[in-house]
Specification:
- It comes from Labilithrix luteola.
- Keywords: RNA-binding.
- This protein is α+β, with helices and mostly antiparallel strands and 82 residues long.
- The chain has one domain: RRM (RNA recognition motif) domain (Alpha-Beta Plaits).
- It has 2 helices and 4 strands, in the order αββαββ.
- A two-stranded antiparallel sheet has the order 1-2.
- The relative contact order is 0.17.
- The C terminus is likely disordered.
């Protein structure tokens, strides 16, 4: 999956302001998920209802509104008690 293909798919639901395909640091391959930022909340809701379960490049999309993680996580964030 490329950012351009993702942008083209979601553009059918409104203005796409950003796309980010998450890549594996070691292999350089896509990890199987991405983030798409839509122009408005209404466009984002339309993308969820229209594209969730749709097929793209032979795979079913799971589209939902991203939720912010609590605490930051990871080596750089929140928890430092090793």
């Amino acid at each position: 999956m490329t950012s351009d293909a993702l942008r083209a798919c979601f553009a059918e639901c409104g203005t796409v302001t950003d796309t980010h395909v998450v890549m594996d640091r070691e292999t350089g391959r896509a990890r199987g998920f991405a983030f798409v930022t839509m122009g408005t909340d209404a466009e984002a809701s339309h993308a969820v209802s229209s594209l969730n379960g749709a097929m793209l490049d032979g795979r079913a999309l799971r589209v939902n509104i991203a939720e912010e993680r609590a605490g930051g996580g990871g080596a750089r964030g929140g928890h430092r008690g090793w």
